[in-house]
């Protein structure tokens, strides 16, 4: 009789332990992982950010998603004030890096876009994985930024989907497009040839030619806002680009020619590829400033 009682007691303990373990597992599944990146969106650009493993960063994550208008300060940072305090554990970081996200005091969130030394005390919240282009995206004023929970990248469309590519010559466009509608883009006296594909978006652009598009040189592209958006199919929207791509970015109606930083481009969404350059990338990369670019069909160019 005692042996049976002991068996029942042992079985009961095992079941209880199993239930406790299952509850802990379910709790861990419900709790957001601090290793999951946060997405910072500013002026149509997306940057992945890793949060610190501390109480401040955990409390910050719980507030997501958040959209704020950030204020410019000192030519090296943007900041905004939270309505409620976060737990703080401040220290002097010494060297600030572009892409650092810090907490000043207990309610001021600071995003740095330059490297410099500081004697101020901050609590570290996170850091942008690849801050290339952050300075240009934030601009000189007070931009509106959005912090949101990390996105699953498995299965998302990227720029290379279905593309024929070459990587032997880095000075040539990565995407290979042999058939399409040939165009010329006139950057002043410099003629940049390109080929448009047969997508709905590209056909809509072709129907508007010839046209002029104001474009400005940035780190990895020439970009300009179109007066009228181009149509697109949702299945053709992707992340990133291949060097030499001609894209339409739907979130800001941007017409853009991308000639560099392909390896870091998957953080940028909303892209629709409409063609590719048909010349060495150095021909456009060496241009500087702003241009009223004239876009024409190659067959009617003068």
Describe the structure.
The structure is a single chain. This protein has two domains: 38-149, Cyclophilin, CATH 2.40.100; 181-300, Beta Barrel (Cyclophilin). The chain is an alpha+beta fold. The strands form three sheets. The protein has a nine-stranded antiparallel sheet. Strands 12-13-18-16-17-15-14-19 form an eight-stranded antiparallel beta barrel. The chain has helices spanning 2-30, 55-62, 134-138, 200-208, 282-285, and strands at residues 38-42, 45-51, 66-69, 71-73, 77-81, 94-96, 100-104, 108-112, 116-118, 123-128, 144-149, 181-187, 190-196, 211-217, 221-225, 245-249, 254-258, 271-277, 290-297. A hairpin with a 2-residue loop joins strand 12 and strand 13. 18% of the residues lie in helices and 34% in strands. The termini are far apart. Mean pLDDT is 87; it is low at 23-34. It is built from five helices and 19 strands. It is elongated.
Widest sheet, order of strands = 3-11-1-2-10-7-8-5-4
Strand content: 25-35%
Percent helix, as a range, is 10-25%
Low-confidence stretches: 23-34
Average residue-wise pLDDT: 87
Number of domains: 2
Largest sheet: 9 strands, antiparallel
Structural class of the helices, strands and pairings? alpha+beta
CA radius of gyration:
25 Å
Give the CATH architecture of the largest domain: Beta Barrel
Gross morphology is elongated
Please work out how many helical segments DSSP would assign. Answer: 5
What string gives the helices and strands in order? HEEHEEEEEEEEHEEEHEEEEEHE
CATH topology of the largest domain, by name, is Cyclophilin
Number of strands: 19
């Amino acid at each position: 009789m005692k042996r049976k009682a002991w068996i029942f007691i042992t079985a009961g303990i095992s079941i209880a332990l199993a239930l406790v373990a299952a509850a802990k597992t379910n709790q861990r599944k419900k709790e957001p992982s601090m290793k999951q990146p946060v997405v910072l969106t500013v002026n149509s650009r997306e940057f992945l950010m890793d949060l610190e493993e501390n109480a401040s960063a955990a409390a910050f994550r719980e507030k997501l998603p958040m959209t704020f208008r950030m204020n410019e300060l000192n030519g090296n940072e943007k900041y905004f004030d939270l309505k409620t305090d976060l737990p703080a554990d401040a220290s002097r970081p010494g060297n600030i890096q572009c892409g650092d996200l810090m907490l000043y005091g207990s309610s001021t969130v600071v995003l740095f876009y330059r490297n410099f030394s500081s004697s101020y005390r901050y609590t570290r919240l996170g850091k942008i994985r690849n801050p290339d282009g952050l300075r240009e995206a934030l601009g000189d004023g007070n931009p509106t930024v959005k912090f949101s929970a990390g996105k699953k990248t498995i299965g998302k469309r990227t720029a290379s989907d279905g593309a024929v590519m070459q990587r032997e010559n880095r000075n040539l466009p990565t995407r290979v497009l042999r058939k399409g509608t040939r165009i010329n883009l006139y950057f002043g006296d410099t003629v940049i040839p390109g080929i448009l594909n047969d997508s709905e978006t590209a056909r809509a652009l072709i129907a508007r030619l010839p046209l002029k598009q104001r474009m400005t040189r940035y780190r990895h592209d020439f970009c300009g806002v179109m007066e009228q958006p181009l149509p697109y199919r949702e299945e053709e929207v992707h992340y990133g680009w291949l060097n030499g791509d001609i894209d339409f970015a739907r979130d800001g109606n941007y017409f853009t020619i991308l000639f560099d930083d392909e390896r870091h481009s998957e953080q940028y969404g909303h892209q629709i590829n409409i063609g590719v350059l048909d010349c060495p990338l150095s021909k456009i990369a060496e241009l500087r400033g702003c241009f009223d670019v004239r876009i024409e069909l190659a067959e009617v160019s003068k």
